[in-house]
Specification:
The chain is mostly helical. It has seven helices and no strands. The N and C termini lie far apart (61 Å).
Length: 142
């Protein structure tokens, strides 16, 4: 029997090490919506397919048809400005994906602190003020 798009969705979610709830959270849906997709109670619409592929770096052709590799090459994944990721950015993402959930939380907190230290924007979109953490601050914190 040929593998369906739902079979590939489940395979991708499992390969990413995510339960339905975590997977749904990352793509802005409810766990029940993902369950409905996986149990063929709701159709997986084009917009959801595109978001899933963008968020997780999944090859859209693979998800839709089974052709090609499950994950995109780093050069195919794009940032918010539409530019391909560099090798180092792709390597960072691949390393992050190998972390346990608790360590992913530590990594997110660390990255947010680094952004904050350089006057960047944290994950939730709020502007943050520098704290003195990180390079360029002579190692001083506070």
């Amino acid at each position: 029997m040929e593998e369906s798009i739902i079979d590939r969705l489940i395979k991708a979610r499992t390969a990413l090490g995510l339960n339905q709830g975590k997977f749904a959270e990352k793509i802005g849906l409810s766990q029940s919506a993902v369950s409905d997709f996986e149990n063929n109670k709701k159709a997986l619409i084009d917009r959801n397919i595109k978001v899933i592929c963008l968020v997780f770096g999944i090859n859209e052709d693979w998800l839709r048809t089974g052709n090609g590799d499950m994950l995109k090459e780093n050069a195919e994944i794009q940032d918010e400005e539409g530019k391909p990721l560099t090798y180092e950015e792709g390597k960072f993402i691949n390393t992050y994906r190998k972390l346990t959930d608790p360590n992913k939380e530590v990594a997110k907190t660390t990255v947010d602190a680094l952004l904050k230290s350089q006057g960047g924007v944290a994950e939730k979109g709020e502007k943050v003020e520098p704290t003195g953490i990180g390079p360029g601050n002579n190692g001083k914190s506070g």
